[in-house]
Design brief:
With about 400 residues, the protein is an alpha+beta fold. It contains 13 helices and 18 strands. A hairpin with a 2-residue loop joins strand 17 and strand 18. It binds 3-hydroxy-3-methylglutaryl-coenzyme A (HMG).
Length: about 400
């Protein structure tokens, strides 16, 4: 039985900053952001979007009534959760009107959470082939104004429906993974922004890639020439290339060109959004599938997942017949076209607008946010959402 990704939804807020504007305002050569990091635009979440609403908007795009009935497991990967106790998955379950006979749980391991969810979903579907699993990968990446990490912020969510006989990508049985306790990036419970050892995090991302890739090669006997493309977790779009270029040199020229070209295509959406932590790898996969017309049935796609702290995993999947017809390409293109470019001053204002941290109430104005599902406020320590 094939198990894998049946549908992919994606949502990013309607506001963005152009990286040239940010560079100018910060007195930095724009080439550092656009070439050195490979980022063109950065999504900016208004106060009416939090990880719950972002995920709900992404999932709402792809689920029909049959899916809603069949989903009996909701796994929410995030590192910007809204509550220490109640999982973000329960909110989404309610907002989307899913079948109450479901398990709903939040998963955390930095950017790796959704990959853990996919592997758990695979096991669940193997036991219950008539069911479906909804994975949510939703985050707001915040490092702070004027920090080195500022240019690698972003916001958005990917919704992944896992089922038997998937229409997009059947997951293969071998995947390789690795854990080591390191401090490259973390966010203590008292802090609203992440702490990061930037250079060290880059080195560890590549070191973990080598560990899992070498293990994968040993276990499968495969080499890079067997892959149509490899999608990477992309904290910024140059990062995956930094890892890929270390293993690509000895590969025959034709395969090298294919992997380089497909890598570029797999970064298209991420260049316009920035880092969305748990969703970044799956946004890169989506970018590849929606923007590369030469991919075909049975092509093998590799996926490198990395979550600081750190866990890495290399997994792979096989493209399914007619997969192109089951993507939401037009929806995503319209979403990008309708975004509003804001000045750096406006971005700074939006960044500073936060929910009260002292338990006081706040009603939010949702009329300016075009999203279907918005955070409406906090009353009596409880978040409320509106579905327009
Ligand atoms: P920085 O110190 O501001 O930048 O930090 P830099 O000086 O290293 O420059 C970046 C690149 O731009 C360099 O290229 C420069 O040469 C180049 P490289 O040597 O790296 O190839 N450059 C230029 N290029 C063209 N024209 C110019 C120009 N000027 C310079 N004029 C850093 C960059 C990424 C470290 C920082 O933004 C940061 O700390 N970001 C957050 C951490 C991060 O993204 N780490 C990535 C790996 S860890 C990870 O992926 C996990 C994560 O997603 C979290 C999670 O798991 O939850 C972050």
């Amino acid at each position: 039985m094939e198990i894998g990704i049946d549908k992919l939804g994606f949502y990013t807020p309607h506001l963005y900053v152009d990286m040239n504007d940010l560079a100018e305002e910060r007195g930095i050569d724009p080439g550092k952001f656009t070439v050195g990091l490979g980022q063109e635009e950065m999504a900016v979440p208004p106060i009416t979007q939090d990880p719950v609403s972002l995920a709900s908007n992404a999932a709402e795009q792809i689920l029909d009534e049959d899916d809603k009935d069949a989903i009996d497991l909701v796994l929410f990967g995030t590192e910007s959760g809204v509550d220490h106790s109640k999982s973000a998955a329960v909110y989404v379950h309610q907002l989307l009107g899913l079948n109450p006979k479901a398990r709903s749980v939040e998963l955390k391991q930095a950017c790796y959470g959704a990959t853990a969810g996919i592997q758990m979903a695979k096991g669940h579907i193997a036991l219950h082939p008539d069911k479906k699993v909804l994975i949510l990968a939703s985050d707001i990446a915040r490092y702070g104004l004027n920090t080195p990490g500022e240019s690698t912020q972003g916001a958005g969510a990917v919704a992944i429906l896992v089922s038997a006989s998937p229409r997009l990508l059947a997951l293969e049985s071998t995947s390789t993974y690795y854990t080591a306790d390191i401090m490259d990036f973390w966010r203590p419970v008292y802090s609203s922004t992440a702490f990061v050892d930037g250079k060290y995090s880059n080195e560890q991302y590549i070191a973990f890639f080598h560990k899992v890739w070498e293990d994968y090669q040993e276990q499968t006997g495969r080499s890079l020439t067997d892959f149509a493309a490899i999608a990477f977790h992309l904290p910024y779009t140059k990062m995956g290339w930094k890892a890929l270029r270390t293993v690509i040199e000895d590969v025959p020229e034709e395969a090298q060109e294919r992997l380089k070209n497909n890598y570029q295509i797999s970064t298209k959406y991420n260049r316009q959004v920035g880092n969305i932590y748990t969703g970044s790898l799956y946004l890169s996969l989506l970018s590849l599938l929606e923007n590369q017309d030469e991919l075909k049935e049975a092509d093998i796609i590799g996926l490198y997942s990395y979550g600081s702290g750190a866990v890495g995993e290399f997994l792979s999947g096989k493209l399914q017949p007619g997969f192109k017809e089951h993507l939401q390409t037009a929806v995503h293109q319209t979403m990008f076209e309708n975004r509003e470019r804001i000045s750096v001053a406006t971005y700074e204002d939006v960044f500073e607008q936060t929910l009260p941290t002292d338990g006081s109430e706040k009603q939010l104005q949702t009329s300016e946010d075009p999203a279907k599902i918005c955070l409406a406020g906090v009353n009596d320590h409880m978040r409320s959402y509106v579905v327009k």
